[in-house]
Write a structure and sequence with these properties.
- The protein is mostly beta strands.
- It has no helices and eleven strands.
- Strands 2, 4, 5, 6, 9, 10 and 11 form a seven-stranded mixed beta sheet that branches. The protein has a four-stranded antiparallel beta sheet with strand order 1-3-8-7, with no helix packed on it.
- The protein is globular and about 40 Å long.
- The chain starts with a strand and ends with a strand.
Length: 119
């Protein structure tokens, strides 16, 4: 079983920055692909970014490319999402998730952290 805990959310003005963290409680953290997703009120959950075990394979949603950066520190069992140039439309609950490489679906999910961007 893998437990994921997100932190770092909050209220920020448009143009500001936040760094989200996703801490995992597993000794095999480095074997997982970690993804960030978000869900805004009244909308479906959407993909934001993902990173493989080594950081050599990274993917971003078009809506965040050039503004968000995903990274990981396997020694700390933590993945980060640096969010710069935040926009009101980035307001959502942000979730991190984990899956084994090669699988389509994410197996484990955190409870989420709220990000609110004011205009």
């Amino acid at each position: 079983q893998v437990q994921l805990v997100e932190s770092g959310g909050g209220l920020v003005q448009a143009g500001g920055s936040l760094r989200l963290s996703c801490a995992a409680s597993t000794r095999t953290f480095s074997t997982f692909v970690i993804g960030w997703f978000r869900q805004a009120p009244g909308k479906e959950r959407e993909f934001v970014a993902a990173i493989n075990w080594s950081g050599s394979n990274i993917d971003y949603a078009d809506s965040v490319k050039g503004r968000f950066t995903i990274s990981r520190d396997n020694a700390k069992n933590t993945v980060y999402l640096q969010m710069n140039g935040l926009k009101p439309e980035d307001t959502a609950v942000y979730y991190c998730a984990a899956k084994w490489a090669g699988l389509r679906d994410y197996n484990y999910w955190g409870r989420g952290t709220q990000v609110t961007v004011s205009s």
